[in-house]
Write a structure and sequence with these properties.
By secondary structure, the chain is of the alpha/beta class. The chain has helices at residues 2-39, 46-53, 58-69, 109-116, 139-147, 162-168, 223-247, 250-257, and strands at residues 80-81, 87-98, 122-128, 135-137, 152-159, 172-177, 186-191, 195-197, 200-202, 207-211, 214-218.
Length: 260
């Protein structure tokens, strides 16, 4: 009997030690995975990253960018959507340079080829040199972008064929709506190069996010930290609405959440 009790006692101790060991192992693995997740934030798959950016308000992204970079990364009041929209994607940059009166039939070929090289989640970002009254794109280009899965287009210049673009539901932000053409007035200046769009620097692959408040450019290298801070800001702001209604005081809500 004493041997049996000793066996039971030993077995119980061994089981307890095994349980403790398994618990420690589980906690260790959890810590490791958490650390790996944090350290590899920049390696989040592009599709997942863009999906998260589409859920965040542009105003929060703008605030987060200002806090983290101390720079203005939003496009100005000059940039307007042709219809209310919300999108996010990776910048595919294009530059058009003024070349008044040119008769080169291939002057704009590179602009078209750049469109055909885009993929799902691309955002066509075009800088049209002195292009307020020149349509940088229209219905044909918009149709090609839509067919290739582009998220939208942002044109520092004009856009035309707006009725058709609205009909097919392709979102475009531009500084003007004009009926003019770039043919014989402009020449392709390059694609996937750094451009300045409405005063904001844009590099190929940067994240472009747009909604009813406007457009922001998020440098790709800073995307994970900008997204995290913007998500926190969104959560606070959305939580504040009910608190303001309940307390009937925005002052107290701001004190509580530290967000304005």
């Amino acid at each position: 009997m004493s041997k049996f009790r000793g066996f039971v006692r030993s077995h119980a101790i061994a089981t307890s030690l095994l349980s403790v060991g398994l618990l420690c192992l589980t906690l260790g693995v959890a810590r490791f995975l958490r650390a790996q997740s944090i350290s590899s934030a920049a390696a989040v798959p592009d599709a997942v990253l863009i999906a998260e950016f589409r859920r965040v308000e542009v105003a929060s992204l703008s605030d987060a960018l200002e806090q983290l970079t101390s720079k203005r990364m939003y496009l100005s009041h000059r940039m307007h959507p042709i219809f209310t929209t919300k999108f996010a994607g990776f910048a595919r940059t294009v530059l058009l340079k003024k070349d008044e009166g040119n008769s080169d039939p291939a002057a704009l070929n590179g602009m078209l080829e750049a469109i055909d090289q885009g993929t799902t989640d691309s955002v066509y970002v075009m800088a049209v040199e002195d292009g307020e009254d020149i349509a940088g794109m229209g219905g044909l280009m918009g149709t090609a972008m839509a067919a290739r899965g582009y998220a939208g287009a942002v044109i520092d210049g004009g856009v035309r064929d707006v009725a058709y673009l609205r009909k097919i539901g392709f979102p475009v932000y531009a500084t003007s709506i004009v009926p003019s053409t770039s043919v014989h007035h402009y020449r392709f200046g390059g694609s996937e190069i750094p451009v300045t769009c409405d005063g904001v620097p844009v590099n190929a692959g940067d994240i472009v996010a747009a909604d009813s408040d406007g457009v922001v450019i998020v440098p790709k290298a800073r995307a994970p930290e900008v997204l995290k801070l913007a998500q926190q800001m969104d959560f606070k702001e959305h939580s504040m609405y009910a608190v303001i209604e309940q307390m009937k005081s925005i002052v107290e809500a701001v004190k509580k959440f530290g967000r304005l």
